[in-house]
Amino acid sequence: MSRLLGRLLAFALILGGMAWAGPAQAAPTAAAITKAMQPGWNLGNTLDATGADETSWGNPRVTRELLRGIRAQGFKSIRIPVTWGQHQGPAPDYTIDPAYLARVQEVVGWALDEGFYVMINSHHDSWQWIATMPTDHDNVLARYNAIWTQVAGAFRDTSPRLLLESVNEPQFWGSTGDTENYALLAELNTSFHRIVRGTGGGNAKRLLVLPTLHTNADQGRLDALAGEFTALNDPNLIATVHYYGYWPFSVNVAGGYRFDATAQQDLLGTFQRLRDSLISKGIPVILGEYGLLGFDRHTGTIEQGEKLKFFELFGQQARASGVTTMLWDNGQHYDRTAGVWRDAELFGQISSSWRTRSGTAASDLVFVRRSAPVTAQTITLNLNGLGFTHVRLGETTLRRGPDYQVSGDQLTLTAGLLQRLTRTEGYGVKASLSLRFSRGVPWRLDVVSSDTPQLAAVTGETSAFAIPTTFNGDRLATMTATYADGSNAGPHGWTPYKEFDRAFAPDYPAGTIRLTPDFFAEVTDGAPVNLRFYLWSGETVTYQVTRTGTAVSGTLAG
């Protein structure tokens, strides 16, 4: 058709009241919308708090400005966990407090106005009362149905950018096993689907998010959820799982203080199962929470470089798999009052991983002993398919040859460089080198002047026992605890390696290593316990403690 003829035809259609708009645009698919939601963030420990209101777990009241600040960080979706139970009236109606429902609607509205895709759910209800479904089936189902009848009704005509998630981390107590667990979860998900779809309006095709049992990616859980998707036969469904890493690494227990091959394989295997079991079948996946479990106690539970390597690989696997990820943040990452990241380096690694790979290294620490001659040190680079370019010290580019050499994935810092960097008196970080790669964020490599830590004898109480420690620049990685016969002492008796921050923790400013009441609660009275402290420099030091009632004595070992 000529351009002139096309114009004449369009003009004729307009005159006839039949203006031609071109071919109809197909509605975006669940997979396309899931992709558009990457990356996402969780407004954790807020509307899901189980206290009187959203501030009861220590976070400030949500404001539009907070949401705008999060949007400015590059997030395209926000998961707003909601716990409904303490805001419900009694049976049989289980009426949700209108003021609370209105508050949830207000926060959701603000998030939508800021351009987010938004996901809300039923959160801590899962373990508070839904978990009793095996022994209280009818009451639990009635209460659950009441929540979603009211919530679906309230959001019936809300923007399609709002998604509804049936339940967070579903679990069931007192069941006969996974066969019953899968059946109960399928019953909840099916009931949720029926209720939401039955309200009509925008809910007729609203995207609904269904979890696996415990929201984890074990094979049986994924297979059961895939079966539910087949049974429901609805194109507007999305699957969700959570991932907090290989458990010993995630909390630093059982010697899992490094992001080693075992921890890496756990991550790789998880994404492989998601691809094989769901994504390959056309089921889109939202990884509704991710992080490291140790963060709930202290973000220093896992050493900085090890956690950075975890998030770098996690982001790469999510991109390669087409999985949308939502960072779990209960206030420990983004300072909701100051509007800044508490650990800018960590967020830099996370946000870079949304787009590309970054180079890393076997460690972010190089220890130079002050009491020994300085020698060259070699560090293995994790190139991750990138090219290594250069090393910087501040704004200065170091010299290849006199300062460092690179052979394949081996970076050697020369003795001359290390001697120059550590010549000032005292212990601790003497310089931070920046390793640069062809893409991604630089890798920070701290050069640390150190010597073997020195521990001193002390007496104290189980409620507050601390070993006087002169760290001499070194840093504590983990601790083992055993009795004289070699058997394991303290919590997690199946391993000699105790959990960081739960059983022991360094206090560098105070110059102590604290042993917690939880540790002593599982130590045999009167039996000496041999402690071995593993330092990041590779050094180890030993110590012995003995509990007698609530009194504790600590002495230098052997």
UniProtKB/TrEMBL annotation:
Residue ranges constituting the Glycoside hydrolase family domain according to the UniProt record: 54-333
One Gene Ontology term, aspect cellular component: extracellular region
Stretches that traverse the bilayer: none
GO biological process terms, semicolon-separated: cellulose catabolic process
Keyword terms: Carbohydrate metabolism, Cellulose degradation, Glycosidase, Hydrolase, Polysaccharide degradation, Signal
Gene Ontology molecular functions: beta-glucosidase activity
Segments forming domain Endoglucanase B carbohydrate binding: 451-555
Cross-referenced Pfam families: CBM46 (PF18448), CBM_X2 (PF03442), Cellulase (PF00150)
Segments forming domain Carbohydrate binding X2: 363-447
Signal peptide: 1-26
Similarity section: Belongs to the glycosyl hydrolase 5 (cellulase A) family.
Record-given protein name: Aryl-phospho-beta-D-glucosidase BglC (GH1 family)
Species of provenance: Actinoplanes campanulatus
Organism lineage string: Bacteria, Bacillati, Actinomycetota, Actinomycetes, Micromonosporales
